[in-house]
Amino acid sequence: MTHESQWRRVSRDEPCPVCSKFDWCLIAEDKSAAICPRTESPKRCGGAGFLHRLTDAPRAREPRRVVFPRRAVPPDLTALATRYREAAGVERLTAIAAQLGVSGASLTAFGVGWAENYPAWTFPMTNPETGTVTGIRLRPLSGRKFSVTGGKEALFLPDSMAPDEVLLVCEGETDALAAHTLGFGNAVGRPSCTGGTTALVALVCDLEPARVVIARDNDEPGTRGADALAMTLALYARDVRVIAPPDGVKDVREWVASGATRDDLEQHARATGPRRLNPHLRAKGTT
Asked: What distance in Å separates the CA atoms of residue 132 and residue 16, rounded to the nearest whole number?
């Protein structure tokens, strides 16, 4: 076989099938054999090297390919939130306004929309420093909550806010909508009882509100989250207070549904003393 075969020199495009190099070695035209001077075999072909029948010879290892995952491009959630808002329509907004006990104007101010593909109501979360939507919370008709993939939590913000007024911080989007419906133009929602702290600090520094009122949920996680937020915001705001619904009332939206007015919430805030920082400073070396 080898005497009848025609031989050609290996190249970069066709390396040696025995040693994977691209010089010195020979390969038969019909690719049945190769002569490799680097890898020994029982059959030596003079100074050309060692004969390897390719059915018997050890195959050259395929070069190892390292595939790096392509970094996913973050979705344009601002544009997506706009499409959802436009898809909501008057009839759907009227329906959710009645379901949540909030005004249609507040739904519009918070950019509430409708995602037909889920289907679910959509609530955009906005970075107060950039004004861009960084996350979208989805609320299907079943009531279960989740978010659009690829987003990050931020704040539920109305489309306009005034400086030097009361900033009412609520837990969640529907509480913020209920407070906004009462007339708190600077009502905002944090994504959870512990989320949104960094964004709220940025918002407080930008608005410089006359007072920050944190309206917590009436449970232990809500209490802990509100207390922690109050201690943080007290570093940046003139007056920080925490209020809670009456016993037996879960949250702000339920409070409003039970008949609470803006004056009721403001009276609770006035009756609650502002949170003060009490740093315990000690001289070095003292106990």
From this structure: 57
CA distance 31 to 217: 77
- Where do the structural domains in the chain lie, given as residue ranges? 7-53, 77-270
Instruction: Give the pLDDT confidence of 8-65 residue by residue, as tens digits.
Output: 899 888 899 888 888 889 988 888 898 998 888 888 888 788 888 887 545 555 555 5
Task: Write out the two tokens for 104.
Answer: 């249609």
Mind giving me the DSSP string for 74-119? PP-HHHHHHHHHHHHHHHHHHHHHHHHT--HHHHHHTT-EEETTTT
pTM for the model stands at 0.72
Q: What is the pLDDT of residues 187-219, one digit of tens each?
A: 999 999 999 999 999 999 999 999 999 999 999
Pull the structure tokens for residue 214: 């944190």
Question: At 178, is the secondary structure helix, strand, or coil?
Answer: helix
Contact 100, 177 (CB under 8 A): yes
Strand order in the sheet with 211-215: 187-190, 166-171, 211-215, 240-243
Question: Which residues, in sequence order, are bridge partners of residue 242?
Answer: 214
The answer to whether 200 and 240 are in contact (CB under 8 A) is no
d(CA 71, CA 235): 38
Q: Which residues contact 45 (CB under 8 A, 6 or more apart)?
A: 2, 35, 51
Cβ(49)–Cβ(16) below 8 Å: no
CATH of domain 77-270: 3.40.1360.10
- Cα–Cα distance, 243 to 216 (Å, whole number): 6
